[in-house]
Amino acid sequence: MTEPHIHISASPHIHSKKSRSVQTIMLYVIIALLPTTIWGIISFGYKAAIVIVTAMLASVLTEFLIDKFLKHNTESIKDLSAVVTGLLIALNLSSEVPLYVPIIASIFAIAVCKMAFGGLGNNFANPAIGGRLFVMFSFASAMTRYATPRFLLSESVIYPTVSAATSAATSMATSAATSVATSAATSMATSAATSAATSMATSAATSVVTSAATGVVTSATSAATAVVEGANVLLSGATPLSYIKSAGAGMGALETLESAGYPFTAFAEKVGSALHINPYYVDAFFGNIGGSIGEVSAFLLIIGAVFLLCKKVISYHIPVSYLASFMLLTWVTGGNPIYGVLTGGIMLACLFMATDMVTTPITHKGQIIFGIGCGFLTYFFRSFASLPEGASIAILMMNVATPLIDKYTHPRVMGHKKGGAK
Amino acid sequence: MRQNNKKLTFKGGVHPNDAKHYNKDKSIERLPYPEKLIIALSQGTGKPSVLTKEVGDKVRRGEVIATPSGAIGNIIVSPADGTIAEVISITLPQSIESPAVVIKTDNPGKIPGDDDFVKIDQNQTPLEMIKSAGIVGMGGAGFPTHIKYSIPNDKKCEFFIVNASECEPCLCADYRLLIEKADECIKGIIECAKILSVRSVFLALEDNKSDALDKVDKALDNNRELMTQNNVQIDVKVLKTKYPQGDEKNLVKVLTKREVPSGKFPLDAGVIISNLGTCYAVYEAIYKQKPLMERVVSVTGDAIKTPKNVLSPLGATAEDLIRFSDGFIEDPEKMISGGPMMGFSFFNTETPVVKTTSGLTFLKKAYNAKSTPCISCGRCVNACPMHLLPTRLFKLIKAGKYQEAMDENLMDCRECGCCEFICPSNIDLVQGFKFGKKMGRMSK
Asked: Is there a contact between B442 and A23 (Cβ–Cβ < 8 Å)?
């Protein structure tokens, strides 16, 4: 008998169809990120698409060049991990950033965080997080300018209830009366969106007229109108989280938003009243809030994560322990755990960046510790640090702790006593 | 008697396609005598046995041709009437060099009968009969059964587990035995339990073999009297279909909630485990005075034209079995002695059937993906039935830190292949562990 191509190898001779390659895993991650990516582009417009494409291209190109000139082997580019890194970086950026920001973030992520340590599998920190933090600290002002999502700019947007508007107007009128019209107008500009500013200015004007401070009113109105154009383009620092942060203690998250005049969509109003929930929750859940391109829609992020869970790319241990510990701590300290989780980068971070396999513990037990650590650190950064966000830094710190966690969470080998394994 | 309420299983493991459909429904067929038989003198654990005949000697079916050379070894009988033609050296699929006897058969093409052989001496204790029959553990380990069943005075066997789980994909040898010879199997099990003086017996099988349960129940009913006479209680345990359910350490844990201490045998946990095929061989030895000279071999895989379960004389070559199964649909890229998870690949169709050959698997395509770097996904950790950290062990071995790998319990690895099966980076973990164990032993 002829044996044309007989292969000889050690067992096993078959392989799971469900985990064929790293490439498949990365592809699944990209698919899981698609919904939130598309939503980001819908919400924030073509600028978001440009940021995403730029970051992905920069990542892949960086890895390709390093592979080609330093490793002389471009095989690793096929595993799609650079694409994932680029995409994650972009999703963590505001659509308003200048394009050098995603480029620099990607280069730093790939070259320093990943390739310098030996490429995929050897990096200790999540490259996307490394890249993001690098630009966050380097270009702080550019990083905190956010665009208003499309659906908050539409005509049908609803502003907080009349009573709230009146009280805001009254307070404004008072301040106007003490002739700080400029500051009132500024505060209005920072808080409200386009048409809101106009309507509020009008109501403010009316109430002020009754309080007979005519001269000041005129200047307040004109100042407000002037700022409206600016607010039309950008709500600088307008993520709900930054509002809550700046309001400080003593005021609930939702009340803060309400008194600041933060708008919500008609859709949120409808759903909210039908289900008896505050419309701010609805908007935050579905993604009608300001923020980074990919972080706004908790709903779509969860859909992506469920897909990854079903494909067994990620396990539930890190996200669940992360969110649970964060929410618990927020709740215990009197914060709003639900709104806290729905806003800011925590969803994106905990579902897609804290679950990065390379930089997280290998056992489920270790992953739970990792998740709890992330949750606690995120809480502390959000509550006590100067930045409104904390998820990225929290994950980075836990990445660093991962080898330690791994060391102390060795499973007990069968047939050995507990602690028998070193 | 039978537990159906909750399916027992262990933590870890993988779910390969069990691929039993190839020969699940093929009844056992007897292979006619080939022209020549190649009898490896290394048929299990221990040194190769020593030939007691000369080249040119006539031998009869069932006649002893080789005896153990050391304390651990087994008697080998001739599976056919014939002449000893020559002594050669062969390489078994396990990469073991072994001397082998080539027997030219007298009646090629004739189908072996049921009682045309030299019977073993009846005036012996059952244990001695097992020894004379040359029975070894037929699941794959090949440890001499008479030694396993001689329990030292300081140890006590409380449970006897009959392993019919056959978790290895493709193989159906034990399943067919249960379907066709359930009564004989049960009698064999009772004999084993008698030798071990054990009351509590578990017959473990995976739930993908539940069709055999009716036959087993019937056989149990038929032998009810024999069981009560000998104070033996056989409990059928249905396990979840998961690989490696049939691994002895897992089986002990699942069925008795005990753990076999690291580096020790199941007996150290008060358990003896035997494969179903072994129990059937014990039945034949004790009831029919028949030595072990043939066994059921599943000839299977997607490359074979007519997958069959063959009752093959020991020493028949892969070539004989392939021809008996009508050859290949297309030339296989991989030929495996055993199943695809733990079997050994071979390239020579002259490879003979030995006492531990439970199947020959022929695959059209060899899985041959290139390794990529480990991404620490932890799948291997979750799959490892021994709860080792395969990726960490592999990295240690790759770095040449064999002693450190040994300290992290490398020797507990069963080489079941779950980790490699599930690895998305296609890392050759098992090969690494085999190498690491070798190096670790050497450095000790």
From this structure: no
Same domain, A211 and A320: no
ipTM over 0.95 threshold:
no
DSSP A14-79: ---STT--HHHHHHHHHHHHHHHHHHHHHHH-HHHHHHHHHHHHHHHHHHHHHIIIIIS--GGGGG
pLDDT for res B219: 93
A402, part of any domain: yes
Give the pTM: 0.85
Residues A31 and A139 occupy one common structural domain:
yes
**In this complex, is the C-beta atom of B382 within 8 Å of any C-beta atom belonging to chain A?**
yes
> Quick check: is A9 in a domain?
no
Q: What is the pLDDT of residue A187?
A: 44
- Tell me if A102 sits within 8 A of A90, measured CB to CB: yes
* Chain CA centroid to CA A91, Å: 7
Domain count, chain A: 3
Please report the beta strands in A264-379, taking only residues with DSSP state E, as ranges in sequence order.
none
On whether the CB atoms of residues A102 and A55 are closer than 8 A, the answer is: yes
Contact across the interface for A9 and B319, Cβ inside 8 Å: no
DSSP-derived pairing of the beta strands B50-51 and B64-67: antiparallel
Q: Is 70 exceeded by the pLDDT of residue A104?
A: yes
Angle between helices B182-196 and B126-133 (to 10 degrees): 120
Q: Rg (Cα) of chain B, in Å, rounded? A: 21
Helix axes A22-44, A81-91, angle to 10 degrees: 30
- Following CA atoms A285, A291, A293, A299 in sequence, which dihedral angle do they give, to the nearest 10 degrees? -10
Cβ atoms < 10 Å from Cβ of B317: 19
* A281 domain-assigned: no
Query: Do the chains contact at A357 and B426, CB–CB below 8 Å?
Result: no
Reported in sequence order, the residue ranges of B224-280 that DSSP labels E, i.e. its strands, are 233-239, 271-275
Q: How far apart are the first and last CA of chain A?
A: 51
Query: Could you give phi then psi for residue A68, rounded to 5 degrees?
Result: -70, -45
Residue A184 has pLDDT above 70, yes or no: no
Q: Is B352 helix (H, G, I), strand (E, B) or coil?
A: strand
Q: Which of A325, A400, A402 is nearest to A130 (CA)?
A: A400
> Which residue in A1, A13, A365 has the most chain B C-beta atoms within 10 A of its own C-beta, making it the best mutation to test that interface?
A13
Tell me the C-alpha distance between A61 and A134, whole Å.
19
Range of the structural domain that residue A28 is part of: 22-147
Are B297 and B173 contacting, i.e. CB atoms less than 8 angstroms apart?
A: yes
Q: Chain B, 294-333: which have a CB under 8 Å from a chain A CB?
A: 319, 322, 331-333
Listed in sequence order, the DSSP H helices in B289-401 are 318-324, 379-383, 390-398
